[in-house]
Write a structure and sequence with these properties.
Blueprint lengths: L1 H21 L3 H16 L6 H17 L3 H17 L5 H17 L14
């Protein structure tokens, strides 16, 4: 029962975060999404793909805020989680890799090209 309450709270916070993004309030959206991830990380039933999607969204928000180092951290976590999924979605994995590559390029960090389309 407590996990159900936490899951509903995470969903409510995720929705609020999306609303903040739509309104351009990236700082609040980032705080809310961090709370969502904190709740999800304590729930064994949350899938890696769900966490990966939230880390990707958090990374994207950080890109919008021009917080490249923070974006790199979250996008790398998203990519690692997506690569760890047995049934990964190649398009979403590539999207995360592409955004991470963009952030790394803007930070002037040399990183090999990450193309996962050919591996499926």
């Amino acid at each position: 029962m407590p996990n159900d309450i936490l899951r509903r709270e995470a969903e409510r916070l995720r929705h609020l975060s999306q609303t903040c993004v739509q309104q351009g309030d990236y700082s609040t959206a980032r705080q809310l999404l961090k709370m969502v991830i904190e709740i999800e990380e304590s729930d064994v039933a949350v899938t890696k793909e769900t966490l990966a999607a939230d880390f990707h969204e958090l990374g994207w928000i950080c890109v919008c805020m021009d917080s490249k180092q923070e974006a790199q951290q979250y996008l790398q976590l998203a990519l690692d989680l997506r690569l760890a999924c047995v049934q990964q979605d190649a398009a979403q994995t590539q999207q995360t890799a592409d955004l991470l590559q963009q952030v790394l390029t803007e930070m002037h960090v040399a990183k090999p090209t990450m193309d996962f389309r050919t591996s499926h």
